[in-house]
Amino acid sequence: MVRVRLVRVELPNSIEVLITNLWEEEGHSTKEFKDLYFLRWRIETNIFIQKNILQLESFSGLTVPSVLQDFYATVMMINLHSILIKEAQQTVESTLTERKYPVKINQNKSIGKLKAKFIHLFIYHDPQLILRKLHDHFIKDILPVRKGRSFKRVRKTVQSKSKYKTFTNFKPAY
Question: Could you tell me if 8 and 63 lie in one domain?
Answer without folding.
Answer: no
